[in-house]
Each structure stands twice: as C-alpha cells, then as structure tokens.
Amino acid sequence: MAGKAYLMMYCCIIFLLSVVQTCYSTEIKLGILLPEADTYPFSIKWVLPALEIAIEKVLPSIVPGINVLQEVKNSNCSMDLAPKAAVDLYAVEHVHVFIGPFCDYAVAPVARFSPHWNIPVLSAGALAADFKYEKSEFKLLTRVHGTNSNTVEAFVAMANSFNWTNIAVIHFEKNFRESACRILVQNLLYHLRVKSQRRPWVGKVKDTNPYHSDIEEILHSASLQSRMCGVSYVSTKI
Question: Quick check: 104 and 128 in contact, CB under 8 A?
C-alpha cells in the first residue's frame, strides 16, 4: 500500500513540476514541508530520495533545461509550526509548490493559506474527510490517495454485506490524540454508531510493546463481545 502511495506521489511530483514550468521559465523552487522524524511514513528521510530520482532521471525528458531547487523545512507534524514554516517558504524562499505537509493538523492551515499565495500543495496525507468534502476551502490541495472516509465506507459496506453486527474496534492509546489513528477510529465509530446503528465494543491498548501491553486481555474481552475485530495501528515497521 505504501509502495503504491510513493509511486502516485512520484507521478504527481512530475506532473506538478511540468505544470509549474509553464509559469516559471528556468528555475523551480520546491518547498519540502515534512517531519524530520523517520517514524512517519512520509518523513523527509523517505520522501527526499524519491524527489531526487524524479528530478534527476525523469524531469529532464519531460521539461528539459529546468533547474529545480529544494528548500526543506521540518513541519514537526504540528498545526503551529507547519504554517510558520510555510510562511517562511512563501515569503523568504519564494517557493513555487509545497510538497507536504503530511499530517492532517499540519496540512490544514497550509492548504487554507495556499490559494491566497497561489501555491499548489501536494500531500501524501490529508486523510481527514474534511479534505474530501471541503474542496472550496482547500482549492489548491492535491492528495495522492483517498481519505479515511473511503476506508471507513469500504469497511461499513463490507460489514453490511456480511451482516456483521457485533464488531470490536481496538486502537493503541499511546499518542492517540496526535496520531492518524485518532481520525480514522473516530470516523469509523461515527459511521458504525450513527449511520449504521451499531454498538461496537471499543478496546484501548495502552502500550505498543507486546511484552508489556494488555493486548492479550483486550483481545480476550473483544472475543466475548464481538465476532469481527478491527485494529487501528500506524507504523513504518509493519
């Protein structure tokens, strides 16, 4: 799944660069706005090599004679620091396109500012349903895949098709408020409770370390309460 997302992002980068080239003669500045921590699936460490391959190997055959510069800023996956870095990239570095941010709370303010600056935003994140339905608010945002709502709708459709009525939802509580799991789990619970009139059992795992967590007890409880179990966990190691 991650491989497909990387490929789509690679293709989108080439497309954006070729479009931007029609407006800027010989130089394009990319504003790379991603987290430094490599625990995120689309951190600077993972994305920069793909960008460099696209710029070196593919771009010259599509739009020859273009010099591409990269200005890199750490978004910290923060709703406070990411927009400040974006203002810096816009006002000081004069970038032509933003690559990132990835995290929902970081990309939202940047994608709101970008239409006023006339700078497109390409993100491998922006997974919240708002980015899908509030297109007038995020006019220049391009996502490389669907939102969490697509995942949730697919799961609920599957549950309806197989008549799953007793469902358990398990998520890891560590850093839950700041994680992508939070938006996915809340969206899933909303669809199950409000739209499907189901009453899912919810389990919270406090520690991601399998040797110290209460996962065994939670799974046992889930087996008594349900016949279908959904686990939400985001990791670059799976």
Answer: yes
* Architecture field, domain 2-143: 3-Layer(aba) Sandwich (3.40)
Is the sign of the CA dihedral 157, 161, 165, 171 positive or negative? negative
Q: Which CATH architecture has domain 148-232?
A: 3-Layer(aba) Sandwich (3.40)
Dihedral, CA of residue 113, residue 118, residue 119 and residue 123, to nearest 10: 60
**pTM (predicted TM-score):** 0.68
> Mind listing the pLDDT tens digit of every residue in the chain (238 residues)?
445 545 555 555 555 555 554 555 578 899 999 999 887 878 898 888 888 888 888 777 777 777 888 999 999 988 999 999 999 999 999 999 999 898 888 999 999 999 999 999 999 888 777 787 788 889 999 888 777 777 888 888 888 888 888 888 887 765 544 566 777 887 888 888 887 788 888 887 776 565 556 777 877 787 877 766 555 554 444 3
Same fold yes or no, 2-143 and 148-232: yes
What is the Cα gyration radius of the chain?
A: 20
